[in-house]
Design goal:
Layout: E1 3-10, H1 16-25, E2 33-38, H2 45-51, E3 57-60, H3 70-84, E4 88-92, H4 99-106, H5 109-112, E5 115-124, H6 129-135, H7 137-145, E6 149-152, H8 160-173, E7 178-180, H9 189-194, H10 228-231, E8 233-237, H11 245-257, E9 263-272, E10 278-284, E11 287-293, E12 300-306, H12 310-316
Parallel strand pairs: 1-4, 1-5, 2-3, 2-4, 5-6, 6-7
Antiparallel strand pairs: 8-12, 9-10, 9-12, 10-11
Helix pairs in contact: 6-7
Length: 318
């Protein structure tokens, strides 16, 4: 019997790692599973988060799947199959990966005879839909068009007009995908994996003229037909000093409001707080969240953006 593959896609900060962790901790996956996690950058924060849940993770850190590491990705899958003999493999590619490039790897003869793709899930943050589709059209639409299931995050923050507009636009890109819009706090993980039919009446497209959703402009709209590593930069720093939650929030508010640091699209990390505990944080354009975690990792902050001013970022967190 072939090993089943579940792919969790989603642009920067959509919440795919959180969704994966939710499904795993709720027991939605009953069989023996393995995870292949790919970060675009120097360090893997998500792998550390998943390890905190006692989940074994195979990391790939030499770029993103859609860039130069396709060979490493295939090797990682074959290694996981040989070493762990899983019933299912969960793949979490970088947020800037194209689904077409990921699926292409599984069509390779050496893998095709061993695995079968079961779920292709794309996570979308509807509040950032307009901004991302305007500035990163090629990458963002690719993740939507090629999904089998689309899970919306943070839907509780939307009003009915914006909600209807987003659903309508998603369905214009992908009419076949199952769209799941329930608030995650009320959503059972098994529903996502077992839900293989779409209730058309529940998700009827609504034609709304104009949306109040943020259409944030970046310094330059991304040109089409570019690879991720030709557009996005990644950078990591390792702060030695302890930091308070308020100070960390203040620094990222400054990053968000200033052009001094370049276009920081996404930052995440693990830091040592003043009381000695560890905090794991996520930052995505104007939005910051931090939570305490049980993790022994040293402090590290990873940035993804465009034209990053690395010296200024180093100075801010020295």
């Amino acid at each position: 019997m072939k090993i089943k593959i579940d792919i969790y896609s989603g642009f920067l900060g959509a919440g795919k790692t959180f969704l994966m962790k939710k499904l795993i901790t709720e027991g939605a996956y009953e069989n023996n599973i393995a995870i292949i996690e790919n970060e675009f950058g120097e360090v893997s924060i998500d792998a550390a988060i998943l390890r905190a849940s006692n989940i074994e993770v195979k990391e790939i850190n030499s770029g993103c799947i859609c860039c130069q590491v396709t060979g490493d990705f295939k090797s990682a899958i074959l290694e996981v199959i040989k070493e762990y003999k899983p019933d299912r493999i969960i793949v979490e590619p970088s947020g800037v990966a194209k689904l077409t490039d990921i699926v292409k790897v599984f069509n390779d003869e050496s893998l095709n005879e061993k695995v079968v793709i079961d779920n292709i899930i794309t996570v979308i943050d509807p509040e950032k839909f307009n901004s991302y589709i305007e500035n990163f059209k090629e990458f963002y639409e690719n993740q939507i068009i090629n999904a089998k299931k689309i899970v919306l995050s943070r839907t509780q923050k939307l009003n009915s007009q914006d909600f209807g507009d987003i659903i309508s636009r998603i369905k214009r890109l992908n009419k076949e995908a199952i769209i799941i819009t329930d608030e995650w706090s009320k959503l059972e993980g098994k529903f996502i994996l077992e839900n293989n039919h779409l209730e058309a009446s529940k998700y009827e497209a609504i034609n709304i003229k104009g949306s109040k959703l943020n259409k944030a402009k970046l310094s330059k709209r991304i040109e089409e037909h570019k690879k991720a590593d030709e557009i996005f930069e990644t950078f990591a720093i390792y702060p030695k000093a302890k930091i308070s939650k308020l100070e960390l929030i203040s620094k990222f508010k400054f990053i968000s409001s200033s052009k001094t640091y370049g276009d920081v699209l996404r930052a995440k990390g693990i830091v040592t707080l003043l009381d000695g505990s560890n905090g794991q944080f996520d930052f995505v354009k104007d939005e910051f969240q931090i939570r305490e975690i049980k993790n022994e990792s040293k402090s590290v902050i990873s940035f993804i953006g465009i034209k990053l001013n690395k010296d200024q970022l180093k100075s801010l967190f020295k």
